[in-house]
Amino acid sequence: MSKTLSVSDMLANLEARISRHRERREIHAREEAHHREQCAFHDAELAKILERYDAFKMAADAASDYAHPRRPRKVCTCAKAGSVRVACLDVDDRELVAVPE
């Protein structure tokens, strides 16, 4: 502050600064409370979404495994043609592999 200000001017200036900082503090305190609430909201939503994501991913993986099962190859032994077993269908109507004996 300038040395040319009167004591009453200095006090008025300081009172204005006090008032401004009190107002700003109050604003930031409200924002902080709001941000805490928003953070809690997003934490809860994230937890729900992660739980649903994990459940859905497990179901999708299981469905994929069912749609494309990894079963051992079967060879038909019901008929023979020379030294090669002939191909036929298994119980799921998939062609079995013909292999030499």
Written overview of the protein:
- By secondary structure, this protein is mainly alpha-helical.
- Helices cover 60% and strands 4% of the residues.
- The chain contains 1 helix and 2 strands.
- The protein has one helix at residues 7-67; strands at residues 80-81, 84-85.
- A two-stranded antiparallel sheet has the order 1-2.
- A hairpin with a 2-residue loop joins strand 1 (80-81) and strand 2.
- It is rod-shaped, with a radius of gyration of 39 Å.
- It starts with 6 loop residues before the first helix and ends in a 16-residue tail after the last strand.
Radius of gyration: 39 Å
| First-residue to last-residue Cα separation | 105 Å
Number of helical stretches of at least 4 residues: 1
Oligomer: single chain
Strand content: under 5%
- Give the rounded overall mean pLDDT: 80
Q: How many β-strands, per DSSP?
A: 2
What order do the SSEs take from the amino end to the carboxyl end, as H and E? Answer: HEE
Strand order of the largest sheet: 1-2
Report on the biggest sheet: 2 strands, antiparallel
The helicity comes to 55-70%
- Regions with little confidence, pLDDT below 50 for 5+ residues: none
Q: Please identify the structural class as seen in this structure.
A: mainly alpha
Q: How would the global form be characterised?
A: rod-shaped
